[in-house]
Design a protein that fits this description.
The protein has about 120 residues and is α+β, with helices and mostly antiparallel strands. It has a single domain (about 5-120), classed as Nuclear Transport Factor 2, Chain: A (Roll). Helix content is about 25%, strand content about 45%. It has helices spanning about 5-20, 25-30, 50-60; strands at about 35-40, 45-50, 65-75, 80-85, 95-105, 110-120. Strands 2-1-6-5-4-3 form a six-stranded mixed β-sheet. A hairpin with a 2-residue loop joins strand 3 (about 65-75) and strand 4. Pfam families: DUF4440. This is DUF4440 domain-containing protein. InterPro entries: DUF4440 (IPR027843), NTF2-like_dom_sf (IPR032710). It comes from Nitrosomonas ureae.
């Protein structure tokens, strides 16, 4: 079954993960991250779902991240790839990082199954 994901819909899900106070709304974690989620950070280190959740719970909740050039590419009928660059507000002219996430439609919602960060030079 082919699903239509909009760029805005997937970007809002990415923002919800980054900018929500997940300590106040812990249910969002299970809503947004798949059980088999993995991440590769900008140093090439693979992180488990639990490690990423630990970071999400401790992150600075006041940072309003800036997304640039956000786009998605369909991979399968129920999976999309999000590609964008991410910047901190005080470093908009910085190189930032390139981010990719794979989102899969499961349990009647989009869930992130994979994320990778790559530094820009």
């Amino acid at each position: 079954m082919a699903l239509n994901a909009s760029v805005e819909q997937i970007q809002q899900l990415e923002l919800k993960l980054l900018q929500s106070d997940l300590t106040a709304h812990p249910g969002l974690i299970d809503e947004l991250l798949a059980e088999n989620f993995e991440e590769i950070d900008s140093h090439g280190v693979i992180h488990t779902r639990d490690e990423v959740i630990g970071w999400l719970l401790c992150k600075d909740k006041n940072i309003q991240w800036i997304f640039k050039d956000f786009r998605i590419k369909p991979l399968t009928g129920d999976m999309v790839l999000a590609i964008y660059s991410l910047h901190k507000p005080d470093r908009v002219n910085d190189a930032g990082s390139i981010r990719t996430s794979i989102w899969q439609y499961r349990e009647n919602r989009w869930k992130m199954v994979f994320h990778q960060a790559s530094r820009k030079n």
